[in-house]
Amino acid sequence: MFKYRDTFPVQAGYAIFQFHHHFDPEPERLDPMTTPTRHFILGAAGHVDHGKTALITALTGTNTDRLKEERDRGISIELGFAELDLGGGIQLGVVDMPGHERFVKQMVSGAGGVDLAFLVIAADEGVMPQTIEHLGILDSLGVRSGVVVVSKTDMVDEDFTAVVTEEARELVVGTFLEGKPVVAVSAIKGTGLEELKSALRAEAEALPVRAELGAFRLPVDRVFTLPGAGVIVTGTCWSGSVGVGDRLQAEPGAMPVRVREVQVHGRRAERGASGQRLALALHGVKKEDLQRGHQIIAPGGATVTRRLDIRVNLMSHYRGGVRNRQRLHVHHAGREVLGRIVLIDEPQLGEETGPRTGLGQLHLEDELTCARGDRLVLRFYSPVVSIAGGVILDPVPRPHKRFDAQVIEALGIMENGDPEALFRQRLQQAGLAGLALGDALGMRDDPEALPVGNRLYHRALAEDLSRRLAGLVADYASRYPLRMGVPKEEARRKCRFKGGPNEWNALCASLEPGAPWVVVGDRIGPSPDGPSLSPGQQKALAHAVEDLQSCGLEWPGLEGWAEQSVALRGAATDPALKDFTPAEVTRWLVDHGHAVAVSNEYIVPIDARERLIGQLREYFANNEELSFKEFRELSGLSRKLGIPLLEHLDQAGLTVRRQDVRVAGPALESS
């Protein structure tokens, strides 16, 4: 078991977030699937030096400034974390977000996954630039509830506090904090803390219960190692749940990992779930493989992409504009990448009279791991200031043309309508041509879709195709009982499949399990051995195999074999064996591994070929080169059959031609 706590020794000019690893004979086990406790994440935001960290310390007893530089400078630089038990079954994981303008990137990282927030405004300074920016970020990221806190009331009189309180109420109009409680506190004197806890408890109780269903997702905000525990990651669980032994993926990178241990706020747990701060001990990955912004997810829980369709909403405080093809910083789940935005339905956004919302497609310079409905923050490339929020409508779109009415309509449905219905309509209309993943509206896992390679097919249409293919195979078997099955290309044409051979092969392979037909090489047949045969047909073919063996390497040709084969002479007078023509029987012998086709007009029994290979191996054990004269003596063949057989051996890698002689090929020893 690993265990950590927040202690901050100063060593050689830097501070370490110290983790203590030990084995507890009776560790506390929390099971969020059965406990009545409701877990939420509380974000603390506000301008630098407005007292967030002091307030959290007063509420929780935990100083979240863990770095030496933070303590020396008196400001938060990195995210800090604490736990606040409000009673009544409400437990909050508190995220202390830096307030300095230089550390807004860290603030955005901490704001992802926050359920409710308190916005801290110092009574001695009032609303400041990062107060406004933090409010815009929280609002853009869809934080659902919160409280406004007027801090440092011990620094001013009651009248000044009242002015700042009114200023705070005006600031939050039109945001998620409009109408929410405004609580005046002093962390130094301890006044207002109980009122703040009560307000937070009431807001948390009004929130819907965190769903523990869905795919597990944990954006990583810290990575470290511990002796005996390996790689540890911490973060806020966005969705789903996780337990010991679960096999997950670290993205980007598709790195498979296995969960060795789960802790919730430093206590061992059977499972962790959404709304909780988790620490996971992982097997299968190295510390240097991970960093903040990676996500630990259940397979299929999110999409790794470099292109996104989004709804862009300019922040209320931003008075500038966004132009088409503008380069931006994109912040999502602790990860920051650069990208350009293509405005789809508006010439530009913002400025004096332009619209403040629109549809856009982000073309990213690096990968993001995201899902439909995720929120992100857009910041200017230079100067780096927060300007807009975005909601992901489609995580895997194809490139769009601007002002395309069909694209705008589809994105409107994705945003406000029934995207599942639109997707299924597209899937149905695509028919057997299939739907490209870029047109799937992010619904690859829809139960009506059959994913095959980079295309999706309507499952019902694919199953109908399988039934039609079964009829085609049965009909072909009745007409050609000695053939393995219908050629795949012929089946593709007769089924009127709209895709190419590669797509057809992939679809057949996907439909084959459970189907009344099988793929055998380049054919589709009723079984791996072809059509079933009557006892009389099986007996005749057994005689044909014996007749073939007697030929050895001296194949007489179809006509000659028809004359000398006892089986074929008998089939010519038996109505039940009307399909036993020399060409059909020869094909059957090759298909079923009794012979090898040297050329279109020359087949060799498998046993005779193996004996020849053995002779060649013995020959090359004592000789470096083989001329045709020596091959003729070895095989007894004339040039008419000897030359094609040598060329066949060359193609098989058993021999290698060098001018007029052969040398041993690489496949000779392994054959």
Can you give a write-up of this model?
This protein folds into 4 domains: 34-206, 3-Layer(aba) Sandwich (Rossmann fold), CATH 3.40.50.300; 303-413, Translation factors (Elongation Factor Tu (Ef-tu), domain 3, Beta Barrel); 418-532, no CATH class; 538-671, Winged helix-like DNA-binding domain superfamily/Winged helix DNA-binding domain (Arc Repressor Mutant, subunit A). Helix content is 31%, strand content 30%. The protein contains 18 helices and 37 strands. The strands form 11 sheets. The protein has a 6-stranded mixed β-sheet with strand order 6-7-5-8-9-10, sandwiched between helices.
What's the layout of helices and strands?
Elements (H helix, E strand, L loop, with lengths): L1 E3 L5 E2 L2 E2 L3 E3 L16 E9 L5 H9 L7 H6 L6 E8 L2 E7 L7 H8 L4 E7 L6 H12 L4 E7 L6 H14 L10 E3 L8 H14 L10 E10 L3 E7 L4 E3 L3 E5 L3 E10 L2 E2 L2 E3 L3 E7 L11 E3 L5 E12 L6 E3 L2 E7 L2 E9 L4 E3 L6 E14 L4 E6 L5 E9 L10 H12 L2 H12 L4 E2 L12 E4 L2 E4 H21 L6 E2 H7 L6 H11 L6 E3 L2 E3 L9 H17 L5 H8 L1 H6 L10 H10 L3 E5 L2 E4 H17 L5 H8 L3 H13 L3 E4 L2 E4 L7
Parallel strand pairs: 5-7, 5-8, 8-9, 9-10
Antiparallel strand pairs: 1-4, 2-3, 6-7, 11-12, 11-19, 12-18, 13-17, 14-15, 14-19, 15-16, 15-18, 20-25, 20-27, 21-24, 22-23, 22-26, 23-25, 26-27, 28-30, 29-30, 31-33, 32-33, 34-35, 36-37
Helix tally equals 18
Shape category = elongated
CATH topology of the largest domain, which one?
Answer: Rossmann fold
Distance N terminus to C terminus?
54 Å
Q: CATH class of the largest domain, anyone?
A: Alpha Beta
Tell me what portion of residues adopts beta-strand conformation. 25-35%
Radius of gyration: 36 Å
Mean pLDDT: 88
Instruction: Report the structural category.
Output: alpha+beta
Tell me the name of the CATH homologous superfamily of the largest domain: P-loop containing nucleotide triphosphate hydrolases
Low-confidence stretches: 4-35
Q: Could you estimate the helical fraction of the residues in percent?
A: 25-40%
What spatial order of strands do you see in the largest sheet?
Answer: 6-7-5-8-9-10
CATH architecture of the largest domain: 3-Layer(aba) Sandwich
Tell me the major beta sheet: 6 strands, mixed
> How many discrete structural domains?
4
